[in-house]
Design a protein that fits this description.
Order of helices and strands: HHHHHHH
Distance between the termini: 87 Å
Oligomer: single chain
Radius of gyration: 34 Å
Number of helices: 7
Bound molecules: zinc ion
Amino acid sequence: MNHQPFESWLLDDLPLAPEQKRELTSHLRTCSHCTALAETGLALRTPRMVSPAPGFAQRFQARLAAQRIAERRKRFWGIVIFSLVGMGALVLLTFPLLRGLAASPAEWINVVLGYLLFIFSSVQALTEVGSVFLRVVPGFVPPFVWMVLASALAGMSLLWTVSIWRITRVPQGVQS
Ligand SMILES: [Zn+2]
């Protein structure tokens, strides 16, 4: 590897132009010889550093600790975001239920039962659709698959809409 002009720059310790500095940094990233030279120069120029090495190991450990902290912070925020999204989805799903919390115990039970029924029927419908699919799909040509998929989706969304409408209607009906 060609270490010029970087080697003389480091040895002469001349003030460098920004462009030269950039070149030097990119060379140091790939060249261990010049990196060692730069480190030595830095050590010689800084009086504090001359005293028996504060040590590569220590600096390395410090960097490692910082990296670990950063990683932990990243993981923490990942968990925060993940739980926020999960909570948002949960609130969306249980919104009809939460509305019933303000009502009296009898209404509350009514709402809970309606909600459970709604979930149960949804799961049942889903498994039925799934089993029909599993039985029927292998013998199909693609256009039919898409037709069945579309009608199944339409049926499911209709079921959901009707169920949600019925659940949200219950407290209002009792209150009035
Ligand atoms: Zn070099």
